[in-house]
Sequence to fold (207 residues):
Amino acid sequence: MTRLIITDDHTIFREGLKQILADQADIDIVGEARSGEELLGLLETTPCEIALLDLSMPGISGIPLLQLLKAKHPGIRIVVLSMHEEHQYVIESLKAGAAGYVTKNSASHQLIQAIRTAARDEMFVSAATREAARRPLVAEFPHIRLTKREREVFDMLVLGRKITDIARRLNLSIKTVSTHKANLMEKMGAATVVDLVHYALRNQLVE
Fold:
């Protein structure tokens, strides 16, 4: 029996998922959460094999939530159920540790297949995104090559933060932050921070 927790901030959508999965004898819904914070709390008391996760929720969500879940609960397989079909979301989710990625417009049998595949500790990507996920993305989306620390510096730079502010927030020296900035600028092929901002906006990396 595969124990599963559903995480989505929309009550109607959660109810629909429960109806879809109710007749599956090998899947037991042991809990549901409305946010990343609620899921993290629930996992402290409710064992499960699979967490079904929406990427876009209030509070902590998306890739940061995925990374936190894998750090705190490495044994849990996470299946992303998202409205986003763009392949950068797929790739970043899988790189962050997701065991599966299903779009919300997928057929219900694909969701069930994704859960069963993840329960076998295998990876599943829905048909709507499979071909996109197989493409080599480094040339098209160079931010994928950034290290975790470089990505943190990148995110703060595009928000307009200065090197000294970033150093203070990350508890790093100004020299170290400057090195990270130089490395990420080279990887991104960017000449100025404005180039980074345009890239981030174009690829929906910032709101």
User: Anything to note?
Assistant: The chain has a mean pLDDT of 88.
